[in-house]
Model the fold of this input.
Amino acid sequence: MGPYIEAQAWRDFHAEMITGIRAALTPLLTPKYAARIGERIYIDEAVAAPQTRDPRHRDSAA
Done:
């Protein structure tokens, strides 16, 4: 299958899967617990050159 077609088919896969899992868990958890959906974003920045400063200190000179 082509990447364009796959992108169309899988565009909302994660959102639908997470929503379905929550719907399946909710009757098993209530009334004591609740299934909630949260969002996390991870950013991976490529470094063009090696760092010359200590990454633990923002004020360190480069």
